[in-house]
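Project standup — Tuesday

K.O.: blocked on the structure for the chain from last sprint. Re-posting the sequence here as requested.
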Amino acid sequence: MAAPKRHPQSPPPAPAPTKPARAAAWRLPAGFALGTAILLGLWLWNRAGQPPVPTAAGRSPIVEPEAKVFPRYAGSESCRECHPAEWEQWRTSNHGLAERPVSPALDKLAFDPPRTFQHGTQSTEVVFAAGHFGIRTLGFGSVISNYPVDRVIGNHPLRQFLTPIGGGRWQTHEATYDPITNKWFNVYGSEDRVPGEWGNWTGRGMNWNAMCAYCHNTRLRKNYDPATDTYHTTMAEQTVGCEACHGPMKDHGEWRRKFPDKDKYPKDPTIVKFSVAQVRGTCGACHSRRHDLTGDFHPGESYFDHYSLTMVDETDTYYPDGQVRDEDYAFASFISSYMRQANIRCIDCHQPHTAKRLLPGNDLCMRCHNGGLTNAPIIDPVKHSFHSATNSGFLCTGCHMPQTTYMQVHHRHDHGFTIPDPLLTKQFGIPNACNRCHTDKTTEWSLEFCEKWYGKKMDRHYRARSQWLARAKQGDDAVRTNITWMIRNETNYFWQAAAANFTGRWLDDGEVRSALLGALKSEHPLVREKATRALEPLAAARRPDITAALAPLLDDPLRSVRHAAAWALRSTVDLQSRAGEDLLHALTFNADQPAGQLQLGAFCVAREDWPRALEHFRAAVNWDPNSAALRHEYAVALSTLNQPQEALQQMQAAVRLAPREAEFRYKLGLAWSEAGNAANALAELSAAVKLDPRHTRALYNLGLAQNAAGQAEAALATLLQAEVADPRDPRAPYARATILVRLNRPDEARAAAQRALALQPDFADAQALLRSLR
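H.V.: unblocked you, prediction finished:
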């Protein structure tokens, strides 16, 4: 199980709700004794206020009932007789040992003799007594207690242990064992996470049912019950069995027993050969960072019919050149690469039953890059790497698959096959493999050698594309044309989709909208989905041209696209329709996590069910009180329901948790304004602008606040800054015009009003002001 960050990422974006009728400052645009007795009832630890989940009466289930699905599975043991070599390879692999019961044969060394290890200010003890394994650590109720462990997930390079706590729940301990060094460590290092945090081992971020179970087992059903906040998790087989990759094989076994003569019956009608995309999707289902839309992917189906992929966007999840930054796994990086474009599959490099590399060192890469298997470019490793064969820099993986360490001891290769480019490091802080190895050297040193060795070869599209995305992330409007070009012309669908993720600030630009609308017709579902999500703000504003363009995607053959369209049109989508059912199923499936409650809240907002929206936002905050983003959404809902004091408290908490987030400072300023405290409002709006000098809404509202405080000249300067930040918004020049009128500066007022009208010819207030100046 991956160790979650302190705060979860939300599922596909749930934007801040828009107020209905009441126009208040908020919406001024103008977001855990060995034994089990102690465990009884612990599943109740955070059931606070679980609100009901929206349903569509009579809708059919998205997934087949277990009674029909599980009987199709025969279990991995059934494969042993006919496939002994493959079965033996799998049995001791990381897949074969992905999840299992604790075992004296495999686990006693870790627990006996007992030992204690320190992590941060805390200590944890592991012990084996009377045939039972246990971990003594800080747990439920913030009390140090003994907790039995019954299962293990993971194998090499680390193993984590599971404790049942009632209500069908299993929690994954932070205490983690390294079988290579025979040492224990805390998967969070010295972070000192405590009970009450989402990411502490007692929290929902370390809940096995939701966070680990699916990828450590075969055809698992989470079976979360929102009404009782409990689980009834089941699976076809514990651990990642043969059928996790090959699909249900009971019919295959039965057919072969009936027709054992392979010479006479060579073709088995129960076997379906997977396409390259299906093979990749089967691996990607677990080896990717994604939002699960169904909870029931099985081999042979399209990845994009079950998941919304997390990929390069304006967040810090990936670097702009596609290198992994957070714990992103391999799938997205791989499909972004030239290897995917060359039709390479995971099993072209990894032995399918051990998951180990097929060949050591450069031998694996040179199977293709010596002209032997494909038309890949022929590469001489010595001449290409400029490193001797005894140097780590001689390895292809050293430069093109740099490693990042996750969970303290897990060193993982980046599968983007990226090109080391120190210039991107110098310009944007994007890491390069040269300095990852030569830590004693400067970026300029690495750049000098790259230019000396490779010259103009470095000035390739890879570099330009990375620069464009990095600049777009920084808010550079000058690359709008480049991003638009990428949406229309990139030959790798991944990067087409990535470009769409960077268009949020330019949706009022006709060329950007045109490119996104064209992308809705792309042959690849990832492009269609991300273009749909990019257009979501305009759909939420119910622009007829956008809602009309998105409507056909409600019937798209791929669920990820239908789901994106249904989410964008959530205020009006027919919940009895196929897309409506997809949306409700995904909302229900993810309702056991704070991010899922957040999205449910936004859904209820769109359907104008504000009381229930408030319940969902409240549940999200109760389940993860240390998330500033969740408190922000809760505050917006409170403000909308005329509860300004409670809203103010939530925004103050959000700012305490994330003091350098400009958006939260801005919203706190609006909250103070709504509470009638102009001085505090002015201070917070000023803080927001200091943190983000291009925050247009903060600049606009700061200008209004300064004017109200009698600071007219400061207000004019701030409003001019707002115009520079967003030269397409007519409100700032109009506000300037009104101030200039009061200052008896008619010529300047007239010019400002004309500027507002040039941007919005039907701006009635600006028209009236201009008439008054004639």
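K.O.: great, moving the ticket to review. The longest helix spans residues 610-623. The chain has a mean pLDDT of 92.
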